[in-house]
Amino acid sequence: MKKLPFSVCIITKNNAKTLERQSSSNYFDEIVIADTGPSDSTKEIARCYTNRIFDFTWNNNFADARNFAIKKQQMILSFRWIQMRK
Fold first, then answer.
1. Which of 7, 21, 52, 61 is most buried, most CB within 10 Å of its CB?
2. What's the predicted TM-score (pTM) here?
3. Alpha-carbon distance 31 to 3, whole Å?
4. SS3 of the chain
């Protein structure tokens, strides 16, 4: 399957198990992770799928985290965001 020319922005915290199950790396050209401070192995698992992992200090504002991730994307087209749930 050819990858879609989109970016996927994922905001995550302590979602190691979920991230492993939900990887979009086989479907999209770019995955951007906005990491809000995990204490599990989220970053290590994310590195298996992308090198576009950025730290975001959580400020109880989802819109700020979303906008941060969008600014980090390099593709013109994007699947705007995926919010990981435990």
1. 7
2. 0.79
3. 12
4. CCCEEEEEEEEECCCHHHHHHCCCCCCEEEEEEEECCCCCCHHHHHCCCCCCEEECCCCCCHHHHHHHHHHHCCCCCEEEEEECCC
- Rounded to whole angstroms, the Cα distance separating 23 from 45 reads 10
Q: What is the pLDDT along the chain (86 residues), one digit of tens a residue?
A: 677 777 888 898 888 888 877 666 677 788 899 999 878 999 999 998 899 999 999 999 999 999 999 899 887 665 555 555 55
Residue type, 13: K
